[in-house]
Amino acid sequence: MKTWNAKKEDFGYETKKWWIVDAEGQTLGRMATKISDTLRGKNKPTFTPHVDTGDFVVVVNAEKINLTGQKLAQKKYYTRSRFFGSLREMNAEGMQEKSPEYMITEAVKGMLPKNKLATQILKKLKVYAGTNHPHSAQKPESLTLN
Predict the structure, then answer these.
(1) Cβ-contact 57, 35 below 8 angstroms
(2) Does residue 100 contact residue 61 with C-beta atoms inside 8 Å?
(3) Pairing of β 76-79 and β 88-91
(4) Would you give the end-to-end CA distance of the chain in angstroms?
């Protein structure tokens, strides 16, 4: 009996499903783990670590995400350009006001493998601050997180 391995040619765009996640009232880390598993395809029987077998995920209401404990005041996000002295620091409360999409994207990015496949997988994540999104033509299904 031969072992079956997924190949890149077997999983084109037409085989991928679209999921929608409402982030309102969700905890950031717990939601990010479910999203990263869906993006990688770990919830499918055809999961193969070196092939992108996952689906697309659309996250709406990113501005209404919850953080546990004192993370709003204590968690730091760092950005920089390539110039000396350009390191900027912002706590989670300020980042939630300025760019809530960035918080979810960075949380999911940290849960993906650190290789070239991760950049390809991360392109399938679409995050929006409000309830409106331009992906209604793909007919996304609701992804249950609990």
Answers:
(1) yes
(2) no
(3) antiparallel
(4) 37
What does the pLDDT look like over 5-59, one tens digit per residue? 888 888 887 789 999 999 999 999 999 999 999 999 999 988 999 999 999 999 9
Integer Cα distance of 54 and 45 in angstroms: 11
> Two tokens at 28?
């950031």
- The phi, psi pair for 76, rounded to 5°, reads -115, 145
Query: What does the pLDDT read at residue 15?
Result: 83
Q: What is the pTM of this model?
A: 0.91
Asked if 92 and 103 touch (Cβ cutoff 8 Å), the reply is: yes
CA distance 89 to 10: 43
Alpha carbon 76 to its chain centroid, in Å, reads 19
Dihedral sign, Cα of residue 44, residue 27, residue 60, residue 142: positive
Domain annotation for the chain: domains and CATH numbers: 17-66+96-142 (3.90.1180.10)
130 DSSP 8-state letter: S
Contact (CB, 8 A) for 50 and 40: no
